[in-house]
Design brief:
By secondary structure, the chain is mostly helical. It has helices at about 1-15, 20-35, 40-55, 65-70, 70-90, 100-110, 120-130. About 65% of the residues lie in helices and about 0% in strands.
Length: about 130
Amino acid sequence: MPELAAAHHIHQRLLRNPRAATAWTTARAITTRWYDHQQHLTHRWHTRLTRLCAANPHLTTTGNASPTLLTRDLVTYPETVALARTLTTLPNRPHRTTNDALTLIACRLGLARLTPNANDPLRVFLTHTHH
């Protein structure tokens, strides 16, 4: 899948950023939650999961393990990288607003808009994290 290879290349460059480790941990927690709760990128992730299972039939025959859980990190990887990269480039508070950050993140994720509720981990991060 070309998007996985492209994300890996971006991830390698991202690792040079001093804020990369924190941004990666945060982004991974956010995309994992979105995936588990079927929020924001569900259609894209479902399509990628279907393609992964079609290309790797053993994923659907590995005993009791769910392909949905087995492939979660791989399925969400491109968006996790994009989110982590964006988080490293956000200006420090108070020079950014949550809405501006959400607009930028939506654009980087290829979404028309991103309107997380108050409990969404991305909104919590943007409104409560001090850099």
